[in-house]
Design a protein that fits this description.
Length: 734
């Protein structure tokens, strides 16, 4: 099925199951431990051996010599995989660095060997006996020091590196009010609950991987390419995932090394990347330097806006596209955005929840707060004055498919009590605490991906859905079941959903905030095909048949789904593909964040007192799980604002705080009260579901709202994230 015209009224609009808050259908399995993660698949591979990764101790250079003798003689060792015995390997299309290094070393902690043994303890002990001599080379590890060496990156997933409209330089020079500031954001780690983990088993030349992976089809393709085997010989199984935030979009070392280890020792092998290895071995969100210039009239109406971004990655990598939102969020006839990519020999930089906008809005929305103060305009009102209902780079000929930013701003402000805010910084006290309020807009592009599904009805009238879509803790099982139940007129408990297996039809996968809308649209397409088959068997015109209460109806006639399916069941398969509506219409999700903080007068400790937000993201398929997604994202935004940073040792090229003890993330006590309001919206140009993504929207702008609240509380403006108390104390003393 192809979606190339706006959606009219369709079965999803009944709203019998879709749009209703439901508990997650996989919730009981999760809390009882009966939803096994990849490393726990003892049922699939009860005789699995264990692998331990030996990572590089240098960031750049070569292996001069590797001595495996002591490790090979260690108790329980079954084999050791290195570049010398792994066979010919290539690099996956979506990997920046080789997952098994040697003799050349591309980054610190790059996997150089896998020690396989009969027990986990034996593998780990033997790995400590591997001796590697290195020939180190000088590397580049400091973004600020290398900034002037940045180059224009090729067009990538975030679009062109640079965009222009009008005459920015001229308009900025003549603006009544000018703002020019530089903001920095650090490298960040995904810090998801479940580590990267896989079990691999070979059956002849066929490989099965039970793995933690967000994008099954991408993983299969890159594994086949890396090993040089046909894709049909690779099976990925990933029904339950303990979080990913983008770190599991692509094939990682655990999966490849488990496959190589299993092939070498002739039995299944399980590999988990140890938590202290993850930040340096896998991926991270790259640090940025962002320069923002805004020219406006005395009332705060923007005429000129520029956003330039510098970030770094390994050779062949890509930029952090932090100016994406600036291309679409606010008005201004004269515009400029630019991204520059610096070569750094740090571990791979790649997608982390809301790549681009999450860090771009940390800068842009603080700049807007500064502009509001310079113009003497309330920050909410400033954003309303600069709302635009079309792509400001393309002009009115490309309107937004749906844009309710103003509604979010007004409803969010009213619900939060924004009118009680004192606009003068440092004026509100509660005992020893300075109290302030801040706000920021939220923006995330709406993306859709082709997605397929197979759906059937069995002889008992039960509906079964199969798709390789993954559930990374987002509630995919539930919204897919809701879609099938709505389309076929059955109760939710009559639907069985099977996910995360490459034997199922290829879905959109989980990433980029496209997963929910795209995967349910794929189920919609398959369900429409099944409805046609069922109607035909009933002898009813497909476009007139009604589906409800487990029946297919036409007027006063009805037949049960079970009877029509028969003993053999009835199945249909289809995919949802997309036309050019995203080219004809700008598509995005919007919101408004509000935050109240307290800052200790003496210690500069920051405490978030409450947060609120209003969001417009098309039809909300399941308000309960959507709210969970948004408050989780808001929490990550607090982390980005106040504590999260991978600290780079610029002498040796690695992240020093590479474990959960020293990489700080928010906990429950840090987030006492969060309120989420969804603005009613249907986007008929997004998909037949009339939905849009919401999982990443909540992080976009949240950190800036915290930063702006700190300024309102203290009068101290910090532009170097995270906003730790040492920076506040230093500014207080200045």
């Amino acid at each position: 099925m192809k979606f190339d015209t706006p959606a009219g009224r369709n079965p999803i609009d009944q709203g019998r199951v879709i749009g209703i808050p439901h508990d997650r259908i996989d919730g009981a399995a999760k809390v009882t431990g009966t939803a096994p993660y990849a490393y726990e698949r003892h049922d699939a591979a009860p005789n699995a051996a264990y692998g331990w990764i030996v990572g590089s101790a240098i960031a750049k250079g070569r292996i001069a010599a590797m001595d495996l003798r002591a490790a090979e003689a260690s108790p329980g060792v079954l084999g050791i995989v290195t570049h010398a015995n792994a066979g010919k390997l290539t690099k996956g299309s979506m990997n920046t660095a080789h997952l098994l290094g040697g003799p050349q070393i591309e980054h610190y902690e790059q996997a150089l060997a896998l020690v396989v043994a009969d027990t986990f303890e034996n593998a780990r002990a033997a790995a400590a006996l591997v001796r590697i001599d290195y020939a180190p080379e000088d590397g580049k590890f400091d973004l600020a020091a290398e900034r002037l060496n940045g180059v224009i990156p090729p067009q990538g997933f975030g679009g062109p590196a640079d965009t222009k409209a009008g005459d920015f330089d001229g308009a900025f020079a003549s603006a009544a009010v000018k703002l020019e500031q530089t903001y920095t954001t650090p490298d960040q780690s995904h810090a998801m609950m479940e580590p990267h983990a896989s079990i691999a088993a070979w059956n002849g030349d066929k490989l099965t991987l039970w793995t933690s992976n967000q994008m099954i089809a991408w993983g299969v393709g890159d594994m086949a390419k890396t090993l040089g085997i046909p894709k049909e010989n690779v099976r990925f199984v990933s029904p339950y995932i303990g979080g990913g935030f983008g770190s599991k979009l692509f094939l990682r070392a655990d999966a490849l090394l488990a496959a190589l280890g299993a092939r070498q020792v002739g039995r299944p092998v399980k590999v988990a990347i140890a938590r202290p290895q993850i930040p340096n071995n896998t991926t991270h969100r790259p640090a940025t330097i962002q320069r923002i210039r805004i020219g406006a009239d005395k009332d705060g109406v923007i005429d000129a806006i520029a956003h330039e971004v510098w970030s770094g990655d390994l050779p062949g990598g890509g930029p952090e596209t932090a100016a994406q939102q600036t291309r679409l969020l606010y008005r201004g006839d004269n515009r400029l955005t630019a991204h520059r990519l610096v070569t750094l020999n740090l571990p791979e930089g790649n997608a982390m929840r809301a790549p681009g906008e999450a860090v771009g809005l940390l800068a842009l929305e603080v700049a807007m707060d500064e502009l509001a103060e310079a113009c003497g305009v309330d920050p909410v009102e400033l954003r309303i004055r600069n709302d635009v209902q079309y792509d400001p780079e393309a002009g009115p000929q490309r309107p937004f498919s749906s844009r309710k930013l103003v509604e979010c701003l007004r409803a969010g402000a009213d619900r939060f009590g924004w009118s009680k805010r004192n606009p003068r910084p440092g004026q509100v006290r509660d005992g020893r605490w300075l109290v302030g309020m801040g706000m920021a807009s939220a923006f995330r592009n709406n993306l859709t991906e082709k997605s397929g599904a197979r759906i059937g009805v069995d002889g008992q009238g039960r509906v079964i859905v199969e798709t390789d879509m993954t559930d990374i803790g987002t509630g995919s099982y539930t919204i897919i079941a809701q879609t099938a139940a709505e389309m076929l007129g059955v109760d939710l408990d009559q639907v069985t959903v099977r996910l995360g297996d490459s034997r199922f039809p290829v879905s959109s996968g989980s990433g980029g905030q496209w997963g929910a809308n795209s995967s349910t649209a794929g189920v919609y397409a398959a369900a429409m095909a099944l409805r046609a088959k069922l109607a035909e068997k009933a002898g009813y015109p497909a476009d007139q048949a009604q589906f409800d209460d487990g029946l297919v109806r036409l007027g006063n006639q009805s037949q049960p789904l079970a009877a029509l399916a028969g003993a053999q069941g009835l199945w249909a398969e289809d995919s949802m593909e997309y036309g050019d509506l995203d080219k004809r219409y700008a598509q995005a999700t919007f919101g408004a964040h509000f935050c109240e903080v307290g800052v200790d007068m003496d210690t500069a400790e920051v405490r978030v007192r409450r947060m609120g937000g209003a969001f417009a993201a098309g039809r909300i398929l399941n308000p309960k799980s959507a709210r969970s997604q948004v408050i989780g994202a808001m929490t990550m935004g607090v982390g980005a604002a106040l504590m999260e940073a991978l600290d780079v040792d610029t002498r040796f090229g690695f992240f020093v705080n590479h474990d959960m003890a020293e990489y700080q993330v928010p906990v429950h006590a840090d987030i006492p009260d969060q309120d989420v309001l969804f603005i009613e919206e249907l986007d008929d140009k997004s998909s037949p579901m009339k939905a849009k993504g919401v999982g990443e929207l909540g992080i976009c702008g949240a950190g800036a709202a915290v930063a702006n609240a700190i300024y309102n509380a203290t009068g101290i403006r910090l532009r170097d994230y995270p906003l730790t108390l040492d920076k506040l104390l230093k500014a207080q003393a200045a």
